[in-house]
Amino acid sequence: MLDSTFSLLYPNGEEPAGEKVNISDEVISELGLDFLIDLKSSNLSDYFTTDKATIEYRQAVLNDMLENPTIVDTLKSVFKLLNDIVELRRIKSETEVAKNYLYSITEIELYIDIVSKLSKGFQSVKGNVKSDAFRRMTDTVTELAESDYYRDLNRKLGELTSKVHDVKSITIGVNLDGEFRPVDAGVVSLNAESFKSGKVIDKILRMDFKDDDYTCIAPLVPYTRSNTDNAKIAFTNAFNNAMNDIFKADVRQWRQLVQSYVLSNTDFLLKIMPEIEFLTKAQHLLLALRSRGMSLAAPEIAPMDDRRFTAFGLYNPCVALKVEQKMVLNDIDFDDKAKIYVLTGPNRGGKSVITCAVGQAQALCQLGLPVPAASAVISPVTAIYTHFPTGSEGDGAIEKGRLGEECDRLNKIFDTLDSHSLILLDESFSSTGSYEASYIASEVLTGFSMIGCKCLFSTHLHELSGQLDEINKKCAAMGGVPIDTLVAGIHGSERSFEITRAKPDGKSYARDIAEKFGLSYDRIMERAKRNAGR
User: Fold this and answer.
1) CB under 8 Å to 238, separation ≥6 — which residues?
2) Long-range contacts: 512-518, Cβ < 8 Å, 24+?
3) How far apart are CA 434 and CA 38, in angstroms?
4) Is the predicted pLDDT of residue 225 greater than 70, yes or no?
């Protein structure tokens, strides 16, 4: 029997206690994670973990799936059969008991088909799999498929299903009273041949005018539009009850066997059904990125207390899947000199893209996936928060104003933010003037520094960078973590989408733009003199 503690996602069969990650559905959506891995049977938030062993266990599983496509094909085919069992059980629970025996036969058929597909699929890759999960699954399924019990089950099911599937018609006997009224009815025989309608036109078309045992004289119940639904249901139920009674004896002898063995194994497979969907969707994402020539790296998992995030060649996978242009790769390092970054640069210069990329890499790492980078070293975090523009005028914005609504959302984040959290801010406080926004931002950054969380703050507030020396000096005296600056690069007046660790020069980009469009002082004066001389 399959081990009920087995899991494709957790080395010990279940999530370790206290390893949950605080990440809301809103954050998942804002980072585009639901676009990358679109699940139907579970929530993506269920699979985040801070446990290093769990992350590495999944990395090995996904690596096997990437190297052995047969595994994915096998899991997908099994997933469809498991869906059939789920639907069968739903129908079974909603119908009368009379059909249950026949439904049990169908479930056993599906179970045997699942074991057969698993055995065939994993036998073909037995020498290639390296992950503990698939080695264990291969050994277990092979042992099960080769057991005398399974062979006997398969043989008995073949006999029973043959008996059921060979039935093409039944002969019904009806007793009549002295006034030609039916008093009793029952099934006389099961037949392997279908009855003919007995209609004259059918006889003509068959060129067969000779009656035989399989030619009806007249239909017993004409299934026409004139029949009421109740009449049809009554006839169908009577038939189902009769058929159930006929096969009940055959199936009843299996009932104890089915409940003690087949159903428990089926329940186990249904338990890992969401895991199968998660892994196959994750593998689909990785193949899609690979097909576009993008790098993927299994991150080295650093201790949580190190608060590491170092990624070389980082990119945004959502953008990579949507655009045809060559992606710009960037290096980001939350090192001892900076656990918090203020990112500035021109509008549409890649600030939002790289901000999301950091969150996506952190999230994918803690799902156990390779990250979108050439290489990475990442410490797990206990929570991922975002503070992005909402783009809506909800009740909160109407009641408190846009700035008040922004501050209220951030205030709620501070309620649970800790030193092992990651928070990403994109154009926060853009709803107010630069003076007020810079003041609030400096207070918030001071708070982040004292808490010790990792943070990337993308902003248009160039003057905020000029306050960082003072903020760092203040925080260092109180034991806060250092803050540094990143700049979305420009070449002349053109955006390069390259992110560099440097002090921003807010005026340089403006000067380049003014020069490009002829609005610099020198260009204006040239035209003024030219016009005056006309």
Assistant:
1) none
2) 516/492
3) 39
4) no
- The contacts of residue 481 (CB under 8 Å, 6+ apart) are 339, 340, 449, 452, 475
The whole-number pLDDT of residue 212 equals 67
The answer to pTM > 0.70 is yes
Residue with tokens 């953008």: 319
- Chain position carrying tokens 């199936």: 251
Q: For the beta carbon of residue 304, count every other beta carbon within 10 angstroms.
A: 15
Give the domain ranges of the chain.
294-503, 506-534
pLDDT per position as a tens digit, 370-411: 999 999 999 999 999 999 987 655 554 455 678 888 899 999
3-state secondary structure of 494: strand
The pLDDT value given to residue 226? 58
* Cβ partners under 8 Å of residue 189, min gap 6: 170, 171
Q: Which of 81, 57, 65 is nearest to 8 (CA)?
A: 57
CA angle centred on 367, ends 292 and 289, rounded to 5° = 0
Q: Does domain 294-503 have CATH number 3.90.1150.10?
A: no
Alpha-carbon span 169 to 15, nearest angstrom: 53
Q: What share of the chain is helix, strand, coil (3-state, %, to 5)?
A: 55, 15, 30
